[in-house]
Amino acid sequence: MSKPLLATLAALVITGAGMAPAAAATRTTSAAPAVKAVDFAGTVALSNCSGSVVRLPSSADSDPALVLTNGHCLETGFPSPGEVIVDQASSRSFGLLDSAGTRVATLRASKVAYSTMTDTDVTIYQLTLTYAQIKSSYGISALTVNDTHPVASTAIKVVSGYWKRIYSCNIDGFVYRLKEGDWTWKDSVRYTSACDTIGGTSGSPVVDATTGKVVAVNNTGNEDGERCTVNNPCEVDASGNVTVRQGINYAEETYQIPACFGTGNKLNLSASGCTLPKP
Fold it and tell me: What are the DSSP E strand ranges found in 3-55?
């Protein structure tokens, strides 16, 4: 698993297109889509991981804010294969960063809304403050989680609040099954080699470099070239063929998350379209 910093020391680190020819004078050329600058605003530093304050497409400013990180960054330890944790009490703190990466506040969780390492690798905390309160007090807006599947070749930024470092690369493709030790994840994102993430980057938001929306959460990489072992995930295709890519890193998609939260950012795993694993 890639990469809670302390877990690395202990045992586990589950871590522009070319322009078209000019149009004839009689035709109107469409403006290129505006590119949203990607910086550290809204990201957070955990004790051993990275994360981000996120909102869903349907979230209201008055809703309690959410923090997204990895399942293996959960303060009570790695969820076991098949385990799903919901509504678990937590008072974990998070260092909120501004655009320059300066810590401007300490946010606190009220609970773990959802956490698992089955099929995906996510923990979602509910905070004691609303989005409006965070914006009013600190001038920081949450990142929005995109609710559609990411697209291959998209330019992305992996933004680590722990290290205050931004990695830039592209989505290289998608992995049918990504297996590491006892855990298996479905439809994972594979980065191109430029995103050489390290310990402490676990839980970093993977941000579409054009839209500024979160499309995945950084979680692992093959460090030593081993096959399907801890810190050395392997790719398994639909036919069971195994591929090992030493030095390549991965993330878990987040587009499934919005369908599982309803009014007031309340978790509803029975909601129509919710495909996250259930307890």
Answer: 43-45, 50-55
